[in-house]
Description:
By secondary structure, the chain is an alpha+beta fold. It folds into two domains: 7-104 and 179-399, DD-peptidase/beta-lactamase superfamily (Beta-lactamase, 3-Layer(aba) Sandwich), CATH 3.40.710; 423-522, Lipocalin. It has helices at residues 14-18, 32-42, 88-100, 122-127, 157-163, 182-195, 199-211, 252-255, 261-272, 286-293, 365-380, 387-412, and strands at residues 47-54, 57-65, 81-82, 233-236, 239-242, 258-259, 297-298, 316-318, 323-327, 330-339, 342-349, 354-360, 428-432, 436-443, 446-451, 458-465, 468-473, 482-488, 494-501, 518-519. The strands form four sheets. An eight-stranded antiparallel beta sheet has the order 2-1-12-11-10-9-8-7, sandwiched between helices. Strands 19-18-17-16-15-14-13-20 form an eight-stranded antiparallel beta sheet, with no helix packed on it. Strands 3-6 form a two-stranded antiparallel sheet. It is globular and about 75 Å long. Residues 2-24 have low confidence and may be disordered.
Amino acid sequence: xxFAKGVLVMLSALFLxxxxxVHAQGGLPADLEGFVQQVLREFxxxxxxxxxxxxxxxxxxxxxxxxxxxxxxxxxxxxxxxxASNTKAFTATAIGILVxxxxxxxxxxxxxxxxxxALADPYVTREITVRDLLVHRSGLGLGAGDLLWWPPSTYSxxxxxxxxxxxxxxxxFRSAYAYDNVLYTVAGELIESVSGMKWEDFVASxxxxxxxxxxxxxxxxxxxTRGDFATPHAPIDGRVQIVKPFASDNxxxxxxxxxxxxDMAKWLIVQLDSGRVSDGSRLFSPRxxxxxxxxxxPMPIGLLPxxxxxxxxxxxxxxxxxxxxDYCGYKVVSHTGGLPGFVSKVTMIPxxxxxxxxxxxxxxxxxxxxxxxxxxxxYIGAPTVDWISVLGTLASRRQSFVASRDAGExxxxxxxxxxxxxxxxxxxxxxxxxxxxxxxxxxGGKLVMRFSHTPALVGGMxxxxxxxxxxxxxxxxxxxxxLVTFSLNAEGNIAEVKMKPASVxxxxxxxFQDLLLRPQSSAEHVR
Length: 527
């Protein structure tokens, strides 16, 4: 799961209503305490931690709100949050360390180090490099293969990596940006292969310990195991509530780190000082900094109104574990992260040696955008924007759009149609080449779908229209109901089954649309 970024590109004339005075350049906003408290209320977030570093020093490291909704346990600067995809920069940095040691080369083929690795196209398999694993241009579609690990599956890390050869590529190699998670899993296997240490051990001992991130952990499964963890929350059926943390360790290289404002501040200082750590030694050299921060894969740029020209992006792309773009004339190095109940953002402006991190225990990207932008604007002297109002209005518009679209789809449904077959004829085991088996069974006169390797994906199926059913997962925290369409052959038997998310709000890691399920009797049963 990766939280959507680029909120700025969606903002329009709203800014014109809220651009007023100009910040005094060079420091924290004077109203930051009240601003963060307002963000907590406006975006219904129980707790937030914020760190700001400038010129190699920690300017701010502080918690706001509570760790758990309804409790009195306050968030502080040491409270741990899942940082999700902000882990990717640690994986990229680990590879940079191995490159400096001569154990890897950025532009060497992956198969030079992992002979078993393959993607669907033999040419791509031969040509894809270590660098390509980190920059989202392999040809895999958005989130392709994420169902191998999301929700937590029984597949091991190595099994996930090996199954990628069975996923059809959606685009030409290196032709376009499409965010993926699974190639960072391969990167974790690569680190283990050449270092002789599991990703967790390498990152814990060679990165976190060196930086001084003594409280941080490297496993999804560590979430909530200590008293200093924030509790994850998310809006379920319109109400923010506690949700289960993501607890599978088979994908730690792409999102497994848990950290605090204190520890992330240390990380930002090291990054902004080209790898120098507090004792004067180096985690990595300035050459690796240039690699990590250099744009590799261009990303689309949205156009802002002319009045907002100072905030218009002129470049936008993905580097190695970081996004890079410009903001008001400054190069920004950034990333976001999202897991059930947690979203976060890391932002650095190298020219100012400025870094900002915002960690939250609720899935509100608007919260971290508002705080980050408010702080950055203050330091660069940009015109003041009422980010809370702007982003709140934008959130309302998104909700209206989703409600309208969902209502339109319900209205277009032919509710008087009937299935072509008796319900028992839809039951059976269906196999997708890359995911494996999915079962449809008849229980108590109703169809139930079960993903064989994903315990959470179990749900009852209700007729939608024609030969399409909607599966509503028993675990309502998933927020990922799906439409399931059965296609018949000339003999009236089921030939294949396709799926797609039932709502535009479904996280892209539920890549149901990439499945092509066929009855087990006519498909290769890949376990």
